[in-house]
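Regression check, magnesium ion case 501:
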Amino acid sequence: MTRTAKKTQPPPRRAPSRGWAGAGRGRAGGIPVVKQWRGSTSQVCGLWPFATGAGTPMVGVPLGRNLLTGSTLCCDPISWFQRAQLISNPSAFVLGRPGLGKSTLVRRMAIGLAAYGVQPLVLGDLKPDYVATIEALGGQVIRLGGGRGYLNVLDPGEARSAAARLTGDARVEVLADAHSRRVTMVSSLLTIVRQTPPTDREETIIDRALRVLDDRHPDTAPVMSDLLQVVRDAPQDVRLVALDRGDRARYEQITENLEASLLSLLHGGRLGGIFAQPTSVEMRRDRPVVFDVSSIDDNETDLQAAIMLACWSTGFGSIAVSNALADAGLEPRRHYVVVLDELWRVLRAGKGIVDRVDALTRLNRTRGVGMVMVSHTMSDLLSLPSEEDRMKARGFVERSGMVIAGGLPSAEMPMLTQAIAMSRAEQGMLASWQDPPAWDSRTGKEADPPGRGKFLVKVGGRPGIPVQVTLTGAEGAVHDTNQLWHVQSRVGDTEVSEAAS
Ligand SMILES: Nc1ncnc2c1ncn2[C@@H]1O[C@H](COP(=O)(O)OP(=O)(O)OP(=O)(O)O)[C@@H](O)[C@H]1O
Ligand SMILES: [Mg+2]
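Current build output:
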């Protein structure tokens, strides 16, 4: 009875997990785990059809590994715009809590881009975060502030010598650009000194006074005291635009505030005279450049903002000259990536500054310039006093070709998602990266913060690419912005020990 029942039992319909048992029926002894290798297309093409493409773009500066898939991510605003055509303009906005590696990420991009032939221009380094890197790249370091160097904002720079090499419209354009840049810069400095922008009439006076100044100094660069002198001399041209109706007393009344503000830009004035002396070092166009403004104290917020704006203006002026000369076939075409780190310091300098930044940065695509802006949080941008300024500041993020976000507090998310779409998972990821570091009681030291070097690369509404930036030995040796913290001395210690970086 039992034997018959055994015989009639139907065979199982589905193969067991290791396949059918029995000779020739394909039973596997164990299930192999398939190994994965990564290689370039030219290496792995022979393995067809077992090769699959990487999910992340491989065009640009290698940043690190995708946190989810482990694949390499290459990314920088210029390559993604020019070669991969993944973004609509060559700019990136980097956001993240302090100390999580924003400047380090930007340095990596700058190093990689320099290798592609793009010149990094760091227009204002407050820490200094970039000086060692630019030095290592063979670039120019321009030291400003603290009596080490001056930047004359009235200096037309190389625009004059470039104009002498150009003809026709190109010549007119270069001179006009240099002129408007100088007017903008003086107005920006006045905005910072007064905390409000100068009036329309004052801007026109400055504009006209600068023209008079150029006639007086056709071959040399005028300085701020010369401008003040022109305003005091009340030449006919300036009086006309001041609308003094032929009354000198009225002219003096109209220009009194302007005179007072210009005085504060002179030596001994509120901004310390950095802008009042002839420029100490001319910026070069043919190599990486960093303006080292680290000697300016963090408490001097106005001066920091003023000097950064002046560096931006000089930098963009130089790029304009370079482009004009390249258009005319007089110099090779150069591409630049401009780094504007610590943007928040400039934005808080006063009402109307956002406009100046906006004007400086709007034209990057047409000028063949890549740009990387760095700030901490959206709240920095949205804590500006006027609604108009807040909208414009948000525009910096919205208009960027890509947004690279590091660890951010959850409270930031509503503001961030207004500027760029983020899924809830992505928001959770960013929030988790800002957790504080663990305390290792064994070594008595804090571990690295969990979010250090982790970033989410977002392009428009596409899913973000999470990446871990890993420093190479060479980078680690060149720069460490926490240097001062590694030197620890404890009470009772006779020696100061330097921890291995
Ligand atoms: N990917 C990384 N791997 C290891 N260390 C890193 C990494 N990124 C940054 N660091 C280290 O973290 C410290 C802070 O980095 P960094 O100055 O780039 O931060 P930050 O976000 O620019 O800070 P802040 O907002 O204050 O300017 C530095 O000592 C740097 O060497
Ligand atoms: Mg930084």
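Comparison notes: The radius of gyration is 29 Å. Residues 126 and 395 are 24 Å apart (CA to CA). No diff flagged against the previous build.
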